[in-house]
TrEMBL record:
InterPro entries: Transgly_assoc (IPR007341). It is a multi-pass membrane protein. Its main location: membrane. Keywords: Cell membrane, Membrane, Transmembrane, Transmembrane helix. It is found in: Cell membrane. Coiled coil: none annotated. This is Membrane protein YeaQ/YmgE (Transglycosylase-associated protein family).
Length: 86
C-alpha cells in the first residue's frame, strides 16, 4: 500500500515538474497532472529497468528524476495533442 501512495505522490511531483518545464499553457487539472505523471513514472521506470538500472539507489536518484520527468513531459504532450483534436 505504501508503494502505491509513494508512486502517486512521486507522480504528482513529476507531473508538476514536467508541466513547469513545458512551454505554453497546459489546461490540466491536478488529478490529470497526477495521473499523467504516474504514467510517466511507470514508463520511466520500465525504460530504466530495461537498461538494467538498479531500482534501489542511495541518496537522491537524479537519473531517475530526469528520465521520469522527460517521460511525463512526453505523456502530457501526447495527451494535450489528442485532446486538442477533439
Amino acid at each position: 500500500m505504501g508503494n502505491i501512495i509513494g508512486t502517486l505522490i512521486f507522480g504528482l511531483v513529476i507531473g508538476a515538474l514536467a508541466r513547469l518545464f513545458m512551454k505554453g499553457n497546459q489546461n490540466l487539472s491536478i488529478i490529470a497532472t497526477m495521473l499523467l505523471g504516474v504514467v510517466g513514472v511507470v514508463i520511466g521506470n520500465l525504460i530504466l529497468g530495461a537498461f538494467g538500472y538498479p531500482m534501489d539507489t542511495r541518496g537522491i536518484d537524479w537519473i531517475r528524476w530526469v528520465v521520469c520527468t522527460v517521460c511525463a513531459s512526453v505523456t502530457i504532450s501526447i495527451y494535450l495533442g489528442m485532446a486538442a483534436k477533439k
